[in-house]
From TrEMBL:
<dbReference type="Pfam" id="PF07370">
    <property type="entry name" value="DUF1489"/>
</dbReference>
<dbReference type="InterPro" id="IPR008320">
    <property type="entry name" value="UCP032025"/>
</dbReference>
<feature type="region of interest" description="Disordered">
    <location>
        <begin position="97"/>
        <end position="118"/>
    </location>
</feature>
<protein>
    <recommendedName>
        <fullName>Lysophospholipase</fullName>
    </recommendedName>
</protein>
Length: 132
């Protein structure tokens, strides 16, 4: 079972803007980090789960890691955002490991468009009530 990471979608106004940014940066979709994860071998086949408005809203498959040459690392990502069932997640700095058993499931493609249009606060409340 692969290991995953969680990271804040800093600067994204919504999951839809995060998706648009990832798709528009197909050659260079990546997130920056100061430290290389010690468990990077376990991250093969894993994903970076994005946190927006205190909930996990989507994931991008991890392709690998690369040094920037400035003492930092790039987390190389597939240029897409896979919609997942929104689950509450406290914000944090940097990234955190996420075990496969704790990762939210993907949602169907028909559901994703409708959920992107909802305000994040409403998504969070519906998720807390078990309605999503």
């Amino acid at each position: 079972m692969p290991l995953h990471l969680t990271k804040i979608a800093f600067g994204a106004e919504s999951p839809a803007t995060l998706r648009a940014w990832l798709e528009s940066h197909a050659d260079e979709a990546r997130a920056s980090t100061r430290y290389m994860p010690r468990r990077f071998e376990e991250l093969k086949g894993g994903s970076l789960y994005w946190i927006h408005s205190s909930q996990i809203v989507g994931r991008s498959p991890i392709w690998g890691f690369e040094e920037t040459g400035q003492g930092r690392f790039w987390i190389r990502l597939a240029p897409r955002l896979v919609a997942v069932r929104a689950v509450p997640k406290r914000p944090h700095q940097g990234w955190r490991y996420l075990e496969e058993k704790d990762a939210p499931p993907d949602i169907g493609s028909g559901e994703a468009g409708d959920l992107d249009a909802m305000p994040p606060a409403l998504l969070g409340e519906l998720s807390k009530l078990g309605l999503l």
